[in-house]
Each structure stands twice: as C-alpha cells, then as structure tokens.
Amino acid sequence: MTNPLLTDWNTPFGLPPFGAISDDDFAPAVDAALALSRANIAAIADDPDAPDFANTIAALEQADAPLNRVLGAFYSLAGADSNPARDALQRDFAPLLSAYSSEISENKALFARIEALWTARDTLDLTAEQQRVLMLTRRGFVRSGALLDGDAAARLRAVKSRLSVLGTQFVQNLLADERDWVMPLGPDDLGGLPDFVLATARAAGAEKGADGPVVTLSRSLIVPFLQFSDRRDLRQKAYLAWGARGANGGATDNRAIAAETLALRQERAALLGYDSFADFKLETEMAGNPAAVRDLLMQVWNPAKAAAEADAAVLADMLQGDGHTGPLEPWDWRYYSEKRRRALHDLDEAELKPYLQLDRMIAAAFACANRLFGLDFTAIDGPVYHPDVRIWEVTRNGAHVAVFIGDYFARGSKRSGAWCSAMRSQKRLGGDTRPHVINVCNFAKPEAGRPALLSYDDARTLFHEFGHALHQMLSDVTYESISGTSVARDFVELPSQLYEHWLSVPAVLSEFATHADTGAAMPADLLQRMLGAANYDMGFQTVEYVASALVDLGFHNGPAPADPMQRQAEILTEIGMPRAIGMRHATPHFAHVFAGDGYSSGYYSYMWSEVMDADAFAAFEEAGDPFDPATAAKLEKTVLSSGGSVDAAALYTAFRGRMPGVDALLKGRGLAA
Ligand SMILES: [Zn+2]
User: CA 290 to CA 278: how far, in whole Å?
Assistant: First the structure.
C-alpha cells in the first residue's frame, strides 16, 4: 500500500488527508523524505557547475520541501492531538532531525559554494530579497562555526554539547525541587482562601497522596495562595521555598550549573569572534546590541520603580492597619495588592463571562481583519484530525488568500498553552503557494448545547494567536525561509500583541460581547471595569520582570561572572530593586535563560515587543480611527506582508517613520509621569 504522506493530496486546498493517515505512516514517510533531503543537499554540494544563486541558495530553499510537508502534518497532530505512539515518534524524530541539521551546517563543500556567492555578491545582480536570503543563509552557517577549523572547531562542538547537557540538568533539578516541596494545610490554615484555591490545593494534595489540601511550588497554586492566604507566617514559608528552588544545596542545586553555563557561553562567543555572548545573541535581533537593550529597559525601569514605590507605601499602610509591625515583605505584596484590587476594581468573573462567547470573539477577530485588511472568512469542510477542529477559507475581493484552521478546545491529548503554526508556509519559489495556518488554544469546552464562554484573558489569547496567523496569511515573499513569522525573536510578537489592542477597542466589544442568553450588549460600566482591571498593579509586574531582564543581560554582556549569585545581587543593588518585590525569575530557577539558549540575553524581548505594539497601535490612535485605512494598508505593506525579507528595524521604521519609543507603553501601563 502506498503511504498517503508521500502521495499528492487531492483534498480541498491540498490540506493533509488526516482521515487516510495512520500513525504507522509517519516514521517511513520521515525516513523517505529525509533520504530525499540528503540527496538534494548532496546534489547541491557536489554540483560540478560553478555556484550561482539558483543552483545553490534557491536549491537549498527547496531541498526539504517533501520533509516539511510530512512534518507540517505530524507536528500539528503531535502538539494538538497526541497519543503514546505520537509521543514516541516525536522522541524518535528529534535526534534524526538534529543530526540532519548538523550535517548541513558542517558540510564544507556546501559552505564553500555559499561563501563564494557571498564574496561575489555585488556582482551577482541579485534582487533585494535574494541578497537578504543569501546573507541570512551564510550567517546561519557562520554562527554555527562554519569558518572554524581544527582545534577551534572541535572545541566549539564540545562546548555546545556540554551546554546542552547543562541545560537539561538545570531543568531536571528545578523539577525535582518543585516536586519535592509541599506544605500541608490544616483546618486552621485555610483563612482567606476562596473556593477555587481550596479546590486546587485539595487536588494537589490528592495528587501528592496527602489526606488534605497542600500548597505546592506550582505557579498556578502558589501565586493564588500568596494572594489570598490570611496567614502571614504561611505566606512567608511558601514564598521563601518558592524563591529557593534550585538553590537548596545538594544534588539539585543549580548555582554551579549557572556559573559553568555562563562561562561556556562566553567561550562560545569568543571562539566565533564576538566580544560577548550578548553581542553574539543580539546580532540577529532587532535590538542589535546590548546597549540598545539596556537603554530600553532602563527607560521603563525608572517610571515602573517610582510607581511600585508609591504602591508599596499604600500596601505598607494596609499591613500596619492589620496590626503587623516591620516593613512590607515580598510575601505581603500579592496579598495586600489583591485586597486593594477588590476595593478599587471589583470585577466578578461570573458577571463578565456570559458576555464573552467563543463564537462571537472569533467573529470579532474576523470582523477586525475585514475592516483593516479586507479579508473575508468562509467556513468550509475539509480533512480534520479531530472533530472540534474548524476550517475557513480566507479570501480578499474573491481571491484565495489562505486557509485558516481553529482548534480551540482543551482536551487531554493537547499540550497546554496556545500557539500558531503554519502547516504550509507562503512562498512563490517553485509555484505560488498560499499558507495553511492553524491557531490552537485550550479553552474550556462547554456542555453539549451550551455556548463556549471565555474569560477576558482567553479572548486576548484568541486575538493574540490570530495576530500571528495574519502575519502568516498576509505574507507575500518569494523564499520560504523568510516567510510569515520567520523574523527576529524580538519582532515576532509585534503582530500578535498589536492585534490584542483591537479587542480592547470599546466599539468592538460593544458589538461582539453580547450576553449568551439574552443577546444584550455588555453594559458600559462593566466594560469599563473590565478594561480598567486589566492594567492593575503594573508597577509591581513591570519591576519584577525588568529586574530579571537586566540580570539576564548583565550575565551575558561582558566576562562571565565567577559567582552569578553575587553578580545578581550587585545588579539589583545598582538599579535600586524595591525590597518588597522579588525578581520574577531568580538565577537558580531562571529556566528561560538556563534551560537552553532560547531566551538567554533575550528575556528582554517580551518588553521590547510590548513597547513596539503600544507604539504601533498609537499610530492608529494618532490617525483618529482604530481602523484607519491608510495606517492599516501601511501596516500590511511594511510589516505583515514582508516576513523576514527586510531587517526588522527597517520594517518598523518604514511603518512608523522612526524607531519605537516607550511613551505609549508607559501610558498604557499607567506608568507615565
Ligand atoms: Zn505570541
């Protein structure tokens, strides 16, 4: 029997024929596709003809087309509807694919052709997009060590391999510390805890084999415990244990791992010719260099610290009012802040919920895309991997633009969180290919016959992922490697976070937030309270985040510290960290930075993106209309259609006429002076 993954797909728009694919088809299809990819790479590397753009760079762009088609279908399933067989396949594929990618980056004959083209680039008469793809391709090889030989190459390989061992160890230690700590709650220890916290604590107790409720170090339990528990002594005990993860001494202590990791990263950067690891990491980012990152963080830090200090004074008064002596401590902040929030913005989730229906929020996301970009969405039938999955054809003026797939409900087979991916990316090379884009969320599924209802956070998630989807669907480039969301990490969240702003446009909510039973629009005062509550306690949130980002940057910007804990303390003293606020992630459990390379000297990028999304939305406000057609057209032309075909800073400057400034963010967070 033929493997359906390796044949043509005669389905609507060429979607994967999920009904015909069995789990047993994936491994042989990946083997066959990888063999084809290897043959394609060998043919390019060993081509007797002199290198030119078509026979080298464009050929590389297409070398993995069959593999990408199989993996696009597989990873959609593995993330959104897994089972033990698919989990096992995922474990099997990871080393196969990483070996293949190392083979390519270490292929000397292949790199020699790329280098020859790079050297001759000014004489090749390349389009701007071709020059960009050539630069990015070569840069990828160089950054993985293609210019190194002999001892230096061997040392780089050893450093990278040791770093990956340390990253895994760091996470395992953290999980062990989180698993091993529990605090049982007796009948006298429950004061202040609302039903939902008690239920979570009981479920955690049952899971740990305790005969009553317990507090664990899971963020989803300890944070509400710190917010609600009346028992200051228990809050202190829980907070200190939470802060000590990875720093408890013994076999699971992460402090030595952090020090070794930082030293090896610095060595890796030096081997590749960079001054520091931060310089190496930021070369590919919009920020470009450590000074630009620090400058942005400090512009936000000072107003955030001032707001947090003003809040701290209010909370300290509340603490004293409760008869406690001594200063406000980190285990007090969330508790008094929650009390204050209830007094200032009483917002009952139960009152809100009937107004945020999933189908109405999907309709709102589509309607905004229609007003901004002229897109139309039509529900269609097509092959799906689960009955909850829905498919729409996206058109503009009747012409096909993309296929959009929504998979919104939580289920046991889906990993947690929400994401957007392209099962097929937009490109023009080798034939005009329009994208197949999927949004996956984990919203609670309603009882049969009832409408699905969202929280405001859920609705924001829906708009966020839809913003990523627009970045894929409106992509208009020739080469797949720069298509859609293939942009710098500190730029990729711009379209998604920007799109969240349209959810908070009052006209959108008053049209689409209608009561599930009565159909009535959300009352204006509820709408105002909901939008007000979303921005509460921003001084605290900004301080705990920016402090972590500054420590991350300080660790990687210059010689590696021998004692990271001491360096952390110095940085916090330098910036004047308020005593009642802890870092969002302290070094021994800062998994973003130490679990792998992903966010090392990159933790700032969440804030960078927020600065940009606030500044970008301000362009619509300045035009006097959140749907201003000229601004929307410019956004599509400069940002949403360009993928990575142009440097991110240049794209943003083309949209806004300048680089982003922090004013709109400070205003939005209520931190402006
Ligand atoms: Zn995102």
Answer: 6
Cβ partners under 8 Å of residue 591, min gap 6:
170, 171, 174, 585
| Alpha helix ranges (H) inside 2-127 | 26-45, 53, 59-63, 65-80, 84-105, 108-119
d(CA 435, ligand 1 centre) in Å: 18
**Cα 294 to Cα 70, 332, 561, 602, distances in angstroms:** 42, 30, 18, 12
DSSP string of 112-165, one letter each residue: HHHHHHHHTGGGS---HHHHHHHHHHHHHHHHTTTT--HHHHHHHHHHHHHHHH
Closest CA to 659 of 650, 668, 667: 650
* 465 among known catalytic residues: yes
Quote the CA–CA distance of 673 and 664 in Å, as a whole number.
12
Look at residues 508, 491, 374, 369 and name the one whose alpha carbon lies nearest to residue 439.
Answer: 369
Among the options 61, 465, 480, 500, which is catalytic? Answer: 465
363 Cα–ligand 1 center, Å: 20
What is the per-residue pLDDT across 539-565, written as a single tens digit (0 to 9) for each? 999 999 999 999 999 999 999 999 999
Tokens of 479: 């080469």
pLDDT value at 349 more than 80: no
CA angle 47, 49, 54 (to 5 degrees): 85
* Ligand 1 mean position, distance from CA 466 (Å): 9
Q: Please state, for a pLDDT cut of 90, what percent of the chain lies above it.
A: 86
What does 430-474 look like in DSSP terms, one character per residue? TS-B--EEEEEEEEPPPPTTSPPB--HHHHHHHHHHHHHHHHHHT
Cα–Cα distance for residue pair 51/537, rounded to 1 Å: 58
Would you call 503 exposed, middle or buried from its count of C-beta atoms within 10 A (0-12, 13-18, 19+)? Answer: buried
532 vs 669, higher pLDDT: 669
Output the CA 465–ligand 1 centroid distance in Å.
6
With a cut of 70, say whether residue 1 has pLDDT above it. Answer: no
Q: What is the pLDDT of residues 147-195, one digit of tens each?
A: 999 999 999 999 999 999 999 899 999 989 988 899 999 999 999 999 8
What pTM, to 2 d.p., does this model score? 0.92
